[in-house]
């Protein structure tokens, strides 16, 4: 049985407690998430009502003889609440575990294991972070962090596949990612290497020009020195072109 409430504000409350599972979340943080700067006078009573609703849902999902009942899972503290559930059951924790395993494998030179672990980490995602939860100020910041983490792991997985020589296969995926993130130099560098290794150095040069034009028009800046060095290597048709050689990763 699901303990996720259907109403928006209790759902926000449960999401924030779950994301910080095992830690005490201050009442002030919970109120900020639910009401922002417009905290009503009845906020304390209303928050307690939401907690009672969550405990009722938890109780309905527990066996009758569960020791401590719902209060042992959603614990009240002097100035906050704490959700006590095995965090290993959360997909976000599995994502983090697999990401670390993949990062370590990539760092040690085991690209095949890295690609496998990082792909499994990304498979934990089934849409945008907190997709079905109304997000206040606190959850909004949490979701930004999750999306940044997913983007980093996605880049690491592509880097692992690059190390496995899958240059041509990665070009369509990188094109999509760059369309979504047109000022991301790391993605541009990976695309340039893929295009060069696939026998299309002129397309790699065009990718650099596109990024340079976007950075100039949007921010008034030039690409980094590392990316410019990679650009010069493509111009020179360097045979040993790689991201590592030019510090572009």
Written description of the protein model:
Helices cover 61% and strands 4% of the residues. The protein is mainly α and 249 residues long. Helix 1 (8-19) crosses helix 3 and helix 6 packs parallel to helix 8 (185-197). The protein is elongated. The two termini are 45 Å apart.
Roughly what percent helix? 55-70%
Helical segment tally?
10
Strand-residue proportion: under 5%
Number of β-strand runs:
3
Overall outline: elongated
The overall pLDDT, averaged over residues, is 90
Biggest β-sheet: strands ordered side by side in the sheet: 1-3-2
Describe the biggest sheet? 3 strands, antiparallel
Distance between the termini: 45 Å
Rounded to an integer in angstroms, the radius of gyration calculated over CA atoms is 24 Å
Uncertain runs are 245-249
| Helix and strand run | HEHHEEHHHHHHH
* Class derived from helix and strand content: mainly alpha
Oligomeric state of this protein: single chain
